[in-house]
Amino acid sequence: WFVEGREMKLGSGMSLICIFSLYISRFAERLAQLEEAEGAFDYFTLSYRSFGIQRRSDNGLVLREWAPGAEAVFLTGDFNSWEKQSHPFTQKEYGKWELYLSPKVDKSPAIKHLTKLKLVVLTKTGEYLFRISPWAKYVTKTLDAITYDWTHWDPPQPYQVSVYTPPRPSSLRIYEAHVGISSPEEKIASYRNFTRDVLPRIKDLGYNCVQLMAIMEHAYYASFGYQVTNFFAASSRFGTPDDLKHLVDTAHSMGITVLLDMVHSHASSNTEDGLNYFDGTDSCFFHGGSRGNHSLWGSRLFNYSSWEVVRFLLSNLRWWMEEYHFDGFRFDAVTSMLYHHHGIGTSFSGNYSEYFGIHVDEDALVYLMLANHILHKLYPQCITVAEDVSGMPGLCRSIEEGGLGFDYRLTMAVPDKWIQVLKEVRDEDWDLKNIVQTLTNRRRGEASITYAESHDQALVGDKSLAFWLMDKEMYTNMSALTAMTPVIDRGIQLHKLIRLLTHSLGGEGYLNFMGNEFGHPEWLDFPRKGNNESYHYARRQFNLVDIEHLRYRQLYAFDRDMNLTEDKYGWLAAGQAAVTTLNQADKVIVFERSNLLFIFNFHPCNSYIDYRVAVEHAGKYKIKLNSDELQYGGHGRLVQDTEFFTEPMPFNGRAQSFLVKSIASFNHCIVKRFVNYTLFSLTDLCV
């Protein structure tokens, strides 16, 4: 890991070793300061138990807020008939404010469950501002309201979360999902709808992890959850906090790990129901001035050097782990956090000077190190994934090595490559070397999650792979009762090959966005003024899979069996593949991974007879997964029970090889090797 760093010098003459050592030093210094001032990072990161509203054992309520720019702070709401100044907070040191409310005469809390509340902040200029507590655990909005209300969440009988969590998967197969669009109906679906209808599908498909988007409350539905207003509140448009806890519990009972899409890179610019200008200043949680504004997103940027901001964000991570029992996080927009330029107008070629220098936001970098350190120390099975387009070195190396401590990074170049190929290149001109290079070009020793497409490609203005491949014919020609048109035939075959090649060659984990596994038609568009607030495209039409004569079932079946085959043989947990054949003219790719042999034919026309392939191990091979099977929308050109026997004939750097009787066009197959002496002593699988 450090060998390259010893030799690589940056423009300043400083080596990478020195920079990584500097990062370690800054992280250690920050952690030591935190522990010295707060007692321990465990206490510091559980601040959601002391800020906001806390109910004591005697039902007295203690309220604590941080508003350093405020002149005074008050509490108002249903409980005091919205009297603005009747319940003032007491000012404490370091910008903190506290209020104590005694129990009622009947010993019940002064503020009951589901009471509407607001903070009233008096600014230095004499203005009264109505605000929601940054620590609010539940916010709601009535149909005719513009902004959200702080709704006190303190149920008399709290939901009892199950203590069971599934073991951390060695091969991570992620189903990226959005609760609100998870129904075929034109509506906002609920947590309970997702639990009842979608989780069983995820389980059946062989995914062992679900990544939930848009859970942290966001006032603007069409933001896809990336303009967060209330960081501790589960979105109420989908149901109650208890409904979400039930969803996570149910997923765990199915053996499904649950990740949360975590947005700590920026926040909504909303004021009345967000963090912006919380205390009347532009620099409470964020950088002041232009540095605190994202020029493209119109959102606010956190000040990661602030002690109280770090308290807020780290406690936010602990809250979702402790209260809802999530198993980890996918950190959004890490590139924007890492650099002062936020990746705007910047291309990354791989030159180290692009990753190290004064343009790096070291406060944000140290925050991410702290986040990963605390999560992995307190929750050893926790999974953290970074969405970074820059390719920052060390992102997924341990903090002890000077890395940032993430477990995985997303291979964001892969879906872009597939879209570029489908848009710009004829089938017969595909550059397989370039495609394989894109799939295998990842930093050694840093695990990657790869994907052929995610939610980004499904959004309006772009197209999913299925829509690029089959376009308008998906509306009229997907019936299995009639012969496939050339467009549908090509689309179905390439859809399978692209996904399996990405799955098997591209990383140490795999991700799929909900519905794309069966070639979901059309695009994704949330209700907004531009589409007359329509929900027509803000849904996933799972009902298409349930119609027996539609070919969506065939794509679904292939995706399921692809995942189940990986689950059995674990190529994602194995080392990087060794490509033994990359024949541009034949359009054939052959590679070995995890003692498996993968054979792909991307030629649009040519099938091959007696095609020699190289293998590491001698033995008898059988087909285990074949994309040309009829059940997957193939043509049944291969005999499924064919046996292949190796010969001691060196080929393409391997001592053994054998002839594949037939490789059909636009096809791949999976075969399994048996040693000669017993059916049960299996040593490898071939694809």
Automatic annotation (TrEMBL):
UniProt-annotated catalytic positions: 332 (nucleophile), 387 (proton donor)
Give the Glycosyl hydrolase family 13 catalytic domain ranges: 194-543
* Keyword set, alphabetical order: Glycosyltransferase, Transferase
According to its UniProt record, this protein's enzyme class is: transferase
GO CC annotations?
cytoplasm
SMART domains (UniProt xref): Aamy
> Which pathway does it take part in?
Glycan biosynthesis
Gene3D superfamilies noted in UniProt:
Glycosidases, Golgi alpha-mannosidase II, Immunoglobulins
Gene Ontology MF annotations: 1,4-alpha-glucan branching enzyme activity; cation binding; hydrolase activity, hydrolyzing O-glycosyl compounds
Q: Which SUPFAM superfamilies match?
A: (Trans)glycosidases (SSF51445), E set domains (SSF81296), Glycosyl hydrolase domain (SSF51011)
Per the UniProt entry, the Enzyme Commission number(s) are 2.4.1.18
Task: Name the InterPro entries for this protein.
Answer: A-amylase/branching_C, Branching_enzy, GH, GH13_cat_dom, Glyco_hydro_13_N, Glyco_hydro_b, Ig-like_fold, Ig_E-set
Q: Known Pfam families for this protein?
A: Alpha-amylase (PF00128), Alpha-amylase_C (PF02806), CBM_48 (PF02922)
> Per the record, what are the reactions this protein catalyses?
Transfers a segment of a (1->4)-alpha-D-glucan chain to a primary hydroxy group in a similar glucan chain
Question: Which Gene Ontology BP terms does the record give?
Answer: glycogen biosynthetic process; nervous system development
Please give the family membership noted in the entry: Belongs to the glycosyl hydrolase 13 family. GlgB subfamily.
- Protein name (database record): 1,4-alpha-glucan branching enzyme
